[in-house]
């Protein structure tokens, strides 16, 4: 229990350090959010006015303290929409999370993140399913038909998959399935659930291919390990058919580590979605953070940093805990 | 065993890279190593000879021969072996010049990342649980949680001009984080080996033990990681260029060539295909080579 | 469609299917060179207009902030806000100022008073009549210091502006209600830009629901030809405007609705357009656009805008080597503008002066800056840095950094520019930053010596270019738009005089003289004009390209043949058929991909 608390404290520290560094870095960049709002051709006087309105003319440390004080604070459990003090907050009971208001969109950052986050999660989950499905199937087949053509094919393709950059896979899929065959939308998100589903396919596959290649190899090795065990030989001797042996015995035992990776992968995928989201212009957190940086939309950048660093840290935490549970040596330590 | 190794490396945090370095093996090691070596060899040869044999200058737009009457780039021909790009320059010449860059960036950045990562990892592992370990690992944690894009933009702005050196520094200074974690966990294992414990009991100084006993033991995995890291660095360079933070044009890098070809994918697919295939093959080559090395260096096998 | 294939054909094996698929993929680029024929229209050219129909538009961009005239920040917002809000005066499709809510106006007091007479019976979307009081309220709402209006300072010529902007006054003393339908404007001094700027969006009357002060949460409501239904705007997806039946011009607008789809990739737009799901196409990837422009069947339904953007190379006259006027002249003469044009032949046209052809003040007879390599080398000699092209020796001894931003057309033009300047002994090194950094660094004193310059009209008059870009009063240490930090008293004087000159002929003469100074002093090398291309379906009638608002749709009507479009191949089915092993039916369309075509954002 103490260990868990320690890890949690560590997680909070890492998020704080990351967010603070990002705050400083963002301010050190030579650019002017006010200019980005006013437009390239706006006269300097208009830019100066916007700068003042947003409080960007205040000293950095004042802005930083304001940012931190607002970030997590206490407030009414159900803030009324007219409450200007808490207009930009997301409330969980009396605890409020306030990331301010986007310079460009003039809406609360928590609202924008609330819209975008589920889509990135959806993409990450679909990709995880894709990679697990392809990976397990290919891995099992490869293990079952070891050293035969299908095995070599699976192994070769998996290496190729690991070697191809995400955007290359994305561009290729886009070219074949959206440009040539026109089976799926080129990019975007669509309007109806059916369109969302159609738009999801290519990015999910793109994001999943890399992982699928990796899964194939894990599953194959696990299965080869399991197939060489005594109980498999026993089952075979008892007359269980080859498919039965593979699915009922070996796969079941190999599944444990596979399920574990599946859980961990989702975190990695959320973090790694930036490029896939930009290639397919999937409106999630990844493309949002790219846009926010290109607009120098300070509050939005910080919002994205808070979310992504939390996800990364939490998934590392989850790995730690899972590791502790699964590996007796660590539990002892 | 494999599940444990997997979780160890997952904890080590280099993610998939680490897992493919230390994780399970697949395929026939010898054959893959041979193919890998061949691909890498071809890449080196291409980088060395390509620019010499290329019939055109990689930097000059040819508005006379390199462009069709419809103002589009010309396709592969005897004059332009791989066609021209959207500014009507020779794609082959650019690909070859880019090979030099990609290769040298990949190798130097890896060297930097591996060196820094090994030192940090060995120190952290050796002093496990003490303040130095805590400090170093917290830095690594924050580094890994930090948005890569922001680092790249910050460096780009701070350094005024993005050159090969900038990219090499960017990649080297972000790449060591993962290496450090792997080396740390490896050091933890080595530290408890009998003869290391013995050496310490005999009163050998810490630097001596580290250099004499720990480093050689960690070297195997590090070489494997380094080989695969070269592949990752080549990929990362192309991603950087794709995201608009790469080496400034007109210097041809593969990632930038890919980016430049996008709008013309339908009308002139060779602009994109050439660097795409080149990236794929070289990354594949280094990955295969890394696998082969890992098998060769695997103590369990010998 | 599925049963078209005869029974007699033998079933294909998987392998054959795969082979077909591969063959299709391999030959697809060859097929893609021809566009399908335009969709036929119902009636002949010149048929009587019909009411009804929805005009489908799409764009790569999005409106992120608002459609409130007092807070227009997105590049896309004006074309939509124009349909929602009518003004006292507006631009017609030739860029001339025409009466709108005001049926006429008189200018008094030596040009410092404008008195507008409103058309009676003009209705807001909520049914209220537009009165002089509404005009004044809307102006004060837009110019009060509490509004985020980035365009506010353009109206500083109105008396009492400063007090209202600094929140020292609640009312604008320079705007006076003189009757239910009469409103007058008092200017601090005579100003040739007043009417052109008034005809833009910020001061347009808004419904009483807009209140006396700006607020973020307001549903746009004005007196324009179209209105925004309560749920008409799905942010980030789509926006639908429906006809305002109380619009003051009888019988107009003809369309039931106009719909914009946002975030639509240019290639998807082309697909949808060819399928008949889009009616007007404005975003293209370059190769695709070149094909439309070359196709005689599509050309009759398309046009180029007259040109309202200037591209050039901006040299900072405060930093070496460009503090030397001869070097600047050398650059202006060394640029082969026709070669540069071919970086994007579909949209660029060569120019020799600052003011673009679609803007008042453009002088077709001006000799201007021209490509002349010999002259450029002579200028280098005079500058004291002679260059010998044969031996490639001499020239400016240092590398000149050229700042450019990612994903812009200029990134590519800059590379060709560097090749051209190398021939006169100037070594240019490209530095790429992202757009915000680019803007920040270019507008900062003694920071960036060289880089692309680009400017688009705010209103179609030369002053929209001359003043913010080259007048010395536009210079500031940070955030200036005078990227050359150019300063010339004679030029300033000409521009100041033009600013107060209401007579067009006399103003034109001042413009020509001012432009000649820029040509000689060469703070910029003026190179190209950007001209956007509009491709519409043949059945779209009376749709016009508008120099300010992109689309002129008030008179537009749809004359599409009814029923299924038999001639059109449905692309997705063609794709499925290919997978199933059948040959695709009908013409195959474009096979282009695109990303980030957004030039200049």
Descriptive overview:
The complex is a heterotrimer of chains A (333), B (302) and C (601). Chain A is mostly helical. Chain A is 74% helix and 3% strand. Chain A contains 14 helices and 3 strands. Chain A has helices at 2-28, 33-38, 44-53, 60-71, 109-144, 149-163, 166-180, 193-227, 230-237, 242-271, 273-279, 285-295, 298-326, 328-332, and strands at residues 72-74, 89-92, 95-98. In chain A, strands 1-3-2 form a 3-stranded antiparallel sheet. In chain A, a hairpin with a 2-residue loop joins strand 2 (89-92) and strand 3 (95-98). The radius of gyration of chain A is 25 Å and the shape is elongated. The relative contact order of chain A is 0.13. Chain B has 302 residues and is mainly α. Chain B has a single domain, classed as MetI-like fold (Orthogonal Bundle). In chain B, helix 5 crosses helix 7 (164-191). The longest helix of chain B has 37 residues, at 206-242. The two termini of chain B are 18 Å apart. In chain B, 58% of the residues are buried. By secondary structure, chain C is of the alpha+beta class. Helices cover 27% and strands 19% of the residues of chain C. In chain C, the strands form 9 sheets. A 4-stranded mixed sheet of chain C has the order 1-10-9-8, with no helix packed on it. Chain C has a 4-stranded antiparallel sheet with strand order 4-5-7-6, with helices on one face. Chain C starts with 13 loop residues before the first helix and ends in a 21-residue tail after the last helix. Chains in contact: A-B, A-C, B-C. Chains A and B meet through helix 1, helix 6, helix 7, helix 8 and helix 10 of A and helix 1, helix 2, helix 5, helix 6 and helix 9 of B.
């Amino acid at each position: 229990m103490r260990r868990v608390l320690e890890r949690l404290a560590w997680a909070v520290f890492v998020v704080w350090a990351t967010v603070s560094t990002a705050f400083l870095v963002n301010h050190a960049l030579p650019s002017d959010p006010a200019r980005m709002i006013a437009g390239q051709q706006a006269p300097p006087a208009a830019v100066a006015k916007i700068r003042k309105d947003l409080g960007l003319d205040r000293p950095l440390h004042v802005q930083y303290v304001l940012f931190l004080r607002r970030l997590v604070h206490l407030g009414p459990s159900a803030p009324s929409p007219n409450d200007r003090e808490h207009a930009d907050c997301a409330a969980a009971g009396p605890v409020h999370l306030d990331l301010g208001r986007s310079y460009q969109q003039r809406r609360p950052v928590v609202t924008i993140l609330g819209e975008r986050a589920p889509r990135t999660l959806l993409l990450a989950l679909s990709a995880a399913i894709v990679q697990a499905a392809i990976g397990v199937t290919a891995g099992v087949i490869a293990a079952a038909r070891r050293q035969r053509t299908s095995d070599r094919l699976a192994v070769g393709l998996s290496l190729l998959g690991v070697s191809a950059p995400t955007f290359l896979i994305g561009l290729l899929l886009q070219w074949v399935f959206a440009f040539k065959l026109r089976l799926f939308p080129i990019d975007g998100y669509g309007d109806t659930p059916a369109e969302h589903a159609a738009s999801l396919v290519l990015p999910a596959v793109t994001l999943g291919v890399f992982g699928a290649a990796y899964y194939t190899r894990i599953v194959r090795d696990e299965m080869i390990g399991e197939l060489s065990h005594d109980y498999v030989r026993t089952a075979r001797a008892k007359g269980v058919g080859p498919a039965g042996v593979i699915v009922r015995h070996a796969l079941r035992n190999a599944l444990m580590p596979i399920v574990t990776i599946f859980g961990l992968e989702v975190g990695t995928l959320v973090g790694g979605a930036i490029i896939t989201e930009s290639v397919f212009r999937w409106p999630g957190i990844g493309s949002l953070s790219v846009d926010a940086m290109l607009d120098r939309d300070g509050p939005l950048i910080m919002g994205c940093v808070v979310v992504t660093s939390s996800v990364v840290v939490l998934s590392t935490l989850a790995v730690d805990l899972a590791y502790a549970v699964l590996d007796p040596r660590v539990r002892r330590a | 065993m494999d599940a444990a190794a997997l979780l160890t490396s997952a904890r080590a945090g280099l993610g998939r890279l680490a897992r493919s370095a230390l994780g399970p093996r697949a395929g026939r090691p010898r054959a893959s190593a041979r193919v890998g070596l061949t691909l890498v060899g071809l890449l080196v040869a291409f980088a060395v000879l390509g620019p010499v044999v290329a019939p055109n200058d990689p930097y000059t737009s040819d508005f006379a021969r390199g462009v069709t009457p419809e103002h589009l780039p010309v396709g592969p021909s005897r004059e332009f072996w791989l066609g021209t790009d959207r500014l009507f320059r020779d794609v082959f010449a650019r690909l070859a010049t880019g090979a030099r860059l990609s290769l040298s960036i990949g190798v130097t950045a890896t060297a930097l990342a591996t060196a820094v990562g090994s030192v940090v990892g060995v120190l952290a592992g050796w002093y496990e649980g003490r303040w130095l370990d805590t400090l170093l690992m917290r830095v690594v944690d924050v580094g890994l949680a930090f948005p890569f894009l922001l680092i790249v933009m910050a460096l780009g702005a701070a350094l005024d001009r993005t050159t090969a050196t900038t990219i090499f520094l960017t990649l080297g200074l972000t790449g060591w984080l993962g290496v450090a974690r792997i080396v740390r966990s490896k050091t933890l294992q080595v530290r408890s080996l009998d003869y290391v414990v013995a050496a310490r009991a005999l009163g050998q100084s810490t630097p001596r033990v580290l250099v004499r006993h720990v480093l050689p033991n960690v070297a195997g995995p590090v070489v494997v990681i380094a080989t695969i890291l070269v592949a990752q660095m080549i990929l990362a360079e192309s991603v950087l260029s794709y995201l608009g933070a790469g080496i400034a044009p007109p210097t041809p890098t593969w990632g930038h060539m890919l980016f430049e070809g996008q709008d013309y994918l339908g009308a002139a697919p060779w602009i994109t295909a050439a660097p795409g295939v080149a990236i794929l093959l070289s990354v594949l080559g280094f990955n295969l080579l890394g696998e082969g090395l890992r098998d060769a260096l695997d103590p369990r096998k010998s | 469609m599925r049963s078209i294939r005869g029974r007699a054909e033998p079933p294909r094996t998987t392998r054959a299917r795969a082979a077909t698929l591969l063959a299709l993929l391999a030959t697809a680029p060859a097929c893609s060179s021809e566009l399908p024929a335009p969709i036929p229209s119902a009636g002949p050219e010149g048929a009587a207009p019909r009411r009804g129909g929805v005009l489908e538009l799409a764009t790569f961009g999005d409106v992120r902030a608002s459609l409130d005239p007092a807070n227009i920040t997105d590049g896309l917002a004006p074309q939509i806000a124009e349909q929602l809000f009518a003004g006292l005066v507006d631009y017609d499709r030739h860029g001339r100022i025409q009466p709108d809510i005001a049926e006429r106006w008189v200018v008094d007091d030596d040009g410092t008073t404008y008195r507008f007479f409103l058309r009676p019976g003009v209705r807001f979307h909520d049914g209220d009549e537009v009165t002089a009081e509404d005009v004044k309220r809307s102006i004060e709402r837009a110019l009060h210091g509490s509004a985020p209006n980035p365009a506010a300072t353009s109206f500083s010529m109105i008396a009492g502006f400063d007090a209202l902007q600094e929140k020292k006054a609640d009312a604008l003393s320079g705007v006076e209600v003189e009757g239910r339908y009469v409103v007058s404007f008092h200017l601090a001094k005579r100003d040739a830009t007043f009417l052109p700027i008034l005809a833009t969006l910020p001061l347009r009357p808004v419904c009483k629901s807009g209140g006396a002060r700006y607020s973020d949460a307001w549903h746009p409501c004005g007196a324009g030809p179209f209105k925004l239904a309560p749920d008409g705007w799905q942010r980030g997806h789509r926006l639908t405007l429906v006809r305002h039946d109380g619009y003051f011009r009888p019988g107009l607008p003809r369309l039931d609705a106009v719909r914009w789809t946002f975030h639509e990739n240019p290639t998807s737009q082309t697909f949808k357009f060819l399928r008949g799901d889009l009616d007007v196409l404005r975003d293209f990837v370059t190769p695709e656009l070149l094909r439309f422009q070359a196709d005689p069947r599509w050309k009759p339904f398309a046009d180029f805008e007259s040109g309202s953007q200037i591209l050039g190379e901006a040299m900072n006259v405060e930093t070496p080597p460009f503090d030397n006027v001869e070097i600047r002249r050398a650059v202006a003469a060394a640029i082969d503008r026709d070669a540069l044009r071919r970086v994007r032949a579909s949209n660029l046209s060569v120019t020799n002066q600052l003011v673009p052809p679609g803007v008042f003040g453009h002088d077709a007879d001006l000799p201007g800056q021209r490509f002349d390599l010999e002259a450029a080398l002579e200028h280098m000699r005079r500058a004291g840095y002679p260059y010998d092209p044969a031996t490639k020796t001499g020239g400016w001894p240092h590398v000149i950094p050229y700042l450019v931003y990612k994903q812009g057309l200029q990134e590519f033009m800059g590379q060709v520019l560097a090749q051209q300047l190398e021939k006169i002994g100037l070594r240019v090194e490209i530095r790429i930053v992202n757009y915000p950094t680019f803007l920040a660094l270019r507008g900062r004193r003694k920071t960036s010596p060289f880089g692309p310059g680009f400017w688009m009209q705010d209103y179609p008059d030369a002053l929209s270019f001359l003043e913010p870009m080259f007048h010395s009063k536009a210079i500031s240490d940070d955030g200036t738009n005078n990227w050359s930090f150019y300063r010339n008293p004679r030029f300033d004087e000409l521009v100041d005089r033009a600013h107060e000159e209401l007579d067009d002929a006399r103003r034109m003469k001042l413009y020509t003289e001012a432009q000649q100074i820029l040509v000689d002093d060469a703070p910029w090398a003026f190179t190209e004009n950007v001209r956007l291309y509009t491709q519409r379906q043949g059945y779209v009638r009376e749709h016009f390209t508008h120099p300010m608002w992109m689309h002129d749709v008030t008179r537009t009507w749809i004359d599409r043949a009814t029923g299924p479009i038999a001639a059109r191949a449905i692309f997705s089915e063609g794709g499925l058929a290919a997978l199933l092993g059948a040959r695709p039916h009908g013409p195959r369309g474009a096979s282009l991909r695109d990303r980030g075509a957004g030039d200049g954002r």
